[in-house]
Structures are given as C-alpha cells and as structure tokens.
Amino acid sequence: MSTARAEPVAVEPAGLSEKQTRILEYLRANADDRTYFKSRLIADELGLSAKEVGANMGAVADAAADVDVEKWGYSSGTTWMVTT
C-alpha cells in the first residue's frame, strides 16, 4: 500500500470559456499577494477589456472551488475581493 498523498486539485466545470479560465488562473496566481483586484487592471494583464472581465467574473466566481470572489466596489471601475 502506498502512503503518498495526492495534493487536492481544483477542478472547474468543463463549461468555462478560455477567457474565464485565464481570469481564474490569474486570480489564483495573485490571490496570495493581493486581496483586491480592479477589473481594468486584470484586463490590462490579460489583454481583455474591463467589460469582458466583469461579464465573465460571475461564471469564474461560481466555478472556483478554491477562491472566493465578491464584487466589492465601484469607484473608478469595479473592484473584486478575492480570498483563498
């Protein structure tokens, strides 16, 4: 018998689009360093528009098992609070 433990892997539903997958990967990669993310800054990093980020964030939040995404503020663009 093997006593090795497999690390848990977050699995997203197959229904995530390529944009949604990229957004989720970006949030996962940066959630340990930051808590608040502006849509326009995510968009700049990923080559998307802020509107595309906002339109896809609901699906990302629903699919992510390992991060919590909450709409946080609207001043000068939408801000998202992301926690692990």
UniProtKB/TrEMBL annotation:
One Pfam family named in its UniProt record: DUF7123
InterPro entries according to UniProt: DUF7123 (IPR055547)
Domain DUF7123, residue spans: 12-83
The name this protein goes by in its record: DUF7123 domain-containing protein
